[in-house]
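Subject: sequence -> structure tokens, single chain

Hey, anyone have a minute? Need the predicted structure for the following. Not urgent.
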Amino acid sequence: MDSGGPRPRVRRGHSFFAPISVALAIALVAAGCARSSTAPHKPRHHAPPPVVAIGQPAPPSMVSANAVSCGDDQHCWAVGFGSGTTAAIDATADGGSTWSAQVVPSSVSVLAAVSCSDKLDCLAVGSAGATGAVAATTDGGATWTSETDPAGAAAVTAVDCTSKRRCVALATDGTTYWSSVTTDEGAIWARGGDLPPRMTALDGLACPSTLLCLVAGYSPIGPGRGGGAIATTGNGGGTWAAATLPPGVGILRGLTCAGTTCLAAGTSSTANTGFVPGSGQLLTSLDGGATWQLTSGSVTHDDAFSASCPNAKTCVVVGTDWKGTTQPIPTGSIVATVDGGVQWRSATLRYVPVGMASVACPAVNHCVAVGGNLLVHISLPVKVPIPKAKVAPGTRAGSRVR
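Reply:
Had a minute. Here:
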């Protein structure tokens, strides 16, 4: 590596200037070395490693995946519409490399959401014809059983389990949305409070703690149009209150929290029926949803549907990028940040031809996303922290202190 300025070329041949040129060259190189040891060194900026998303077809029984949840960094479940009259559930035990279909109770026609508290226990919710549906597993999906659905529900649209037995769900009768809580893995549900009047919340439920929950959606602002809405509860779903949002927020669909740092995802479009192009929008909160700010600029493509943040610095947002104008074609959209939102980058997509509906990040370095009949593994350029070894009392670095 050169440590100074360019060296003068020494001409070879019969010239009385040659000895002087050689001496001058040596002197200049020496001076350059001296300067380089004291001059400030300009840091080199290298492009960060890419975020890579690799898709694969879902098992044939899955027609369209609606949601995904992970019990740990290896075990995840995707739920959605099946190929017949029964919903579909796919599972992976290797972090999303391979998937297999699981048997769903025949009464469940569609599953809209799933939440897994560990690698054995999951609760999936949706509908069974004209009523809500709840399916549960306690053996990692070897068997799924139908459980009691919240009373009066025409559909159950979202669920989040804060522990093995306690889960919060959102239910609707087609007009009003409310929360219900189970403390026995879905056997019995206790109705909680209604969401703010006329608020629609198709998914977007996140419970960072037993008491604190947030949900994203929209409220009507005109015929066929809605403005973004977020509701919060501080008593485990007993009562809900509308959060104050910045002006200009469109339809919101996804919400996630890492502690008190929360992220809501949606689109600037206010159309709640059909398709109207709009840029993706992200809102952030650093106080558990009490206050919200729009991120600067457009950091996603057209429609953001789901977000997952394994910690406050690392987040992944998935959705749809519409190609064309006359008859736009939906394609996959995946963006990520590893520096707390300072910079968002589009992932390098390998076989992600359809829009993504949901994402879950069980670890800081990888996530799983689903949409249509596609299951996607996402790799993030983040080092997994190595846990420190526990040292027994009275010892130092594993050796007894004398």
